[in-house]
Design brief:
Pfam families: HSP70 (PF00012). This is Heat shock protein 70. The chain is 16% helix and 30% strand. It has helices at 2-10, 31-40, 55-68; strands at residues 21-22, 46-47, 89-93, 102-107, 115-122, 131-137, 147-154, 166-173, 179-185, 191-196, 206-210. A five-stranded antiparallel β-sheet has the order 5-8-9-10-11, with no helix packed on it. It has a four-stranded antiparallel β-sheet with strand order 4-3-6-7, with no helix packed on it.
Length: 211
């Protein structure tokens, strides 16, 4: 039932504000699913007056009527559709050598696009000559539990104590959903990046040297 709880959280609502629970999709006919839903909604009676296979279409028709203002001509009133990121995007980071990789979120889930955000990262060990930038999408605080998108490296970093070298890391999503991730060594100016298309970003990223 995590998706249901996540939807409520994203909408800033609690179950007391839910009037009806409408079943949608064939899987909602499974008795165990119905039992879990009733538990989540504190015993609220489930609405079964709509065929679950048609519920989404019903909802779309209702939303269309709302947007049209009930105008019988079918002309829609002015409205805006906003594109947002469906999942959080970030990089794997660690506090020191040998520590587990954490997910450092750069662009949180539900952020409107286009968007560009930057964070400054540092080395995790002394005299580190190469730094990987591993890009993930997901909500887990542990990087490896999220969906790995791709990686690139900044090499030939001048010797320095842990945490001294700094790297400005930029996540940029354009209006077409193209994700570009870059990192710049703030002491040498060396810069590299990687780009992913908008098709669920599941293709191999294209790594580039940047100037």
């Amino acid at each position: 039932m995590q998706p249901v709880e996540r939807c409520l959280k994203d909408a800033n609502m609690d179950i007391s504000r839910i009037d009806d629970v409408v079943l949608a999709g064939g899987s909602s006919r499974i008795p165990k699913v119905q039992q879990l839903l009733q538990e989540v909604f504190k015993g609220k009676e489930l609405c079964k007056g709509i065929n679950p296979d048609e519920a989404i279409a019903y909802g779309a028709a209702v939303e269309a009527a709302v947007l049209s203002g009930g105008n019988p001509t079918g002309m829609l009133q002015d409205f805006r559709l906003l594109d947002v990121t469906p999942v959080s995007l970030g990089v794997a980071t660690s506090l020191s050598a040998g520590e587990r990789d954490f997910m450092t979120v750069v662009i949180p889930r539900n952020t409107r696009i286009p968007v560009m955000k930057k964070v400054v990262l540092v080395t995790s060990q002394d005299n580190q000559s190469s730094v990987p930038f591993r890009v993930y999408e997901g909500e887990s605080t542990t990087a490896k539990n999220n969906n790995f998108l791709g990686e690139f490296y900044l090499n030939d970093i001048p010797p320095a104590p842990q945490g001294v070298p700094k790297f400005e890391t930029c996540f940029d999503i354009d209006e077409n959903g193209i994700l570009s991730v870059s990192a710049e060594d703030m002491s040498t100016g060396q810069k590299k990046g990687i780009t992913f298309n908008s098709d669920r970003r599941n293709c191999e990223g294209i790594e580039t040297d940047l100037k």
